[in-house]
Structures are given as structure tokens and as C-alpha cells.
Amino acid sequence: MWVGLSAVKVQCTTTETPLSNSTNTGKLIAEIEKKNNNVNFYKTNLVKCLPIKDQKIRYPKKEEMKSCFGHLTEEIEEFKPKIVFLLGKQVADFVSEKNSELSSTYDYDTVKKNNVIYVSVHHPSYILVYKRKELDAYIRGISKIINTHC
After folding, report:
1. Closest Cα to residue 42, out of 1, 73, 3, 83?
2. Which of the residues 47, 92, 107, 140 could staple to 86 if both were Cys, CB 3.0 to 4.6 A apart?
3. Is 47 within 8 Å of 6 (Cβ atoms)?
């Protein structure tokens, strides 16, 4: 399971899912999934609605994260993923705050809680913009976790 921060503006919610291939983030996630094609993946966001201010997309507020956290918990209970990848600092910090056993570090450490492995990783867009030289290591690191636990 991939967990992003919040929705993006889309033309059609039926065809464009969270972390879709229409975004650079979604393209990188799709590349990782392709390398691990023996595994089923589910994509979601911590905040389900599109946060807007003055007609522009903004980062969600902590209150919005709190109000949506129950939905994420329900998705995890329903789909029973083996691994939950927390994409980026805001998601990792928030989920770690809600679950004190979890870590928000980015060294591919895994934490098991209720038979689910949680892993905090840099957001794909951060890797694509600021750490492009580390892209292959990022893909290998995530793939290694998938191959170890799936």
C-alpha cells in the first residue's frame, strides 16, 4: 500500500486514482510496481479531499489529516496490506505521531504493527527533484523491502 499526502486536481475521479500515472510521482511508483509485478498494490492518500485556498491547491492542515486518519485506518484494516509505504515527511510524521511505535526516518527501516510492515520513505517527487542521482538506490531500496516481506 502506498500512502500519499492528499488528492490532486483531476478531470475524472473514476479513471484517475490516487498517485495515478498522470503525475511524476505516480510514474515513479508505477516503475517500482513494474519491477515487482508479482505483488498487488493499492494506492491511497492520507487526506481524501483536495485542499484548496484561493483557487489553488495547498498542503492539508493537521486538522484535515486528523479528520481523515480514520479512513486510512479503515483502508488498512479492509485491505490488510503486508507493507504500507508512507510517502514523504508529512505523511510519515503524522502517522508516526498517531502510532508511537512507528518511525519517520528515511533509512528504509521497517516497523511491524498489527502484522503490517510500515516504512517511511522520501516522497517520490522529492527524489525526482532533489535527489535524482539517488533514484536507482531509491527504487532498489523499496524493491528490497517488497521482496523481503512479500
Report:
1. 1
2. 92
3. yes
Q: C-alpha grid cell for residue 56? A: 489553488
State the Cα–Cα distance between residues 126 and 128, nearest whole angstrom. 5
In the block, residue with C-alpha cell 517527487: 125
Q: Domains in the chain and their CATH numbers? A: 2-149 (3.40.470.10)
- Predicted TM-score (pTM) of this structure: 0.89
Per-run averaged pLDDT (10 residues), the chain, 150 residues: 80 61 91 95 89 78 91 96 95 86 74 93 95 96 94
What number of H helices and E strands is found in the chain?
A: 5, 7
**46 Cβ contact partners less than 8 Å away, ≥ 6 residues apart:** 3, 4, 5, 6, 60, 65, 68, 69, 72, 91, 94, 95
